[in-house]
Known about the structure:
With 213 residues, the protein is of the alpha+beta class. The protein has helices at 17-29, 48-51, 72-82, 96-111, 114-119, 123-126, 136-152, 166-179, 187-197, 200-206; strands at residues 6-11, 34-38, 61-64, 67-70. A 4-stranded mixed sheet has the order 2-1-3-4, covered by helices on one side.
Amino acid sequence: MRYPNIILWSDANFFSPYVMSVYVALSEKGLPFSLKAVDLDGKEHRGAAYGEVSLTHRVPTLQVDDFLLSESSAIDEYLEERFPAPDFTRLYPRDREKRARAREIQAWLRSDFMPLRQQRPTDAVFNGARFAPLDEAGERSAAQLFAAVERLLPAGQQNLFGEWSIADTDLALMLNRLVIHGDAVPSRIADYAHFQWQRASVQLWLAEPGKLD
Length: 213
C-alpha cells in the first residue's frame, strides 16, 4: 500500500491536548507521518508563513499530500473517513448513536471546562507543574466533569463504548489534568484515566523527544 505524505504540525513543547488527539489518531491508524514544530511562545503561528499552512493559525494542522486541515476534531473525523476500517483501526464506535455520542464528548471537551483548562493547564500533565487549589469555579467544573463520566462510563467497563475510541483519549486527558496533578478524583474515574494513559499510542506521544523534563 502506498501511503500519502502526512505531516502533523505541533506545538514545540508537545503540550497541546488537541495535537495529542490527532497524534494518537494517526498512531492508531498505523499511518507514517512526520512532525513539524511551531513555536507558539514565539508567536510563529501568527506569522504569514504558518498562515499559508493553517486556516486558523492554530495547532494542530494536518497535511495529507496537498490537503491541509486544522481543528483536531475535524482532523480526527477526516482520518476516520480517509483511512476507514477494516483496513485501519477505528477511531469511532461502530454504532451510529455511539459515534454521535463520541463526537458530542469531543465537542464538549473543546468548548467547556474553561476553569479547569485555565487552572490545570496541560503542563501539569506533561511537565509536572503544580498550581494553587481549584477555586469555586474550578471545583464546579470538576464536579460537572465527574458527573458526566459517572453517567457515561458503564460499570465494569474500561472504555466508554465497550471498545476504545478517540473520545476516550480526549476525556482521559481532561481528567488527568486533575489526576496527575494530585487533585481529589473519584477512584473509578481515576482508574479509567490511568487505564487510557497506558495505551500504546498515548505512550508514544508521551515519549516524543522535545518534551521538557
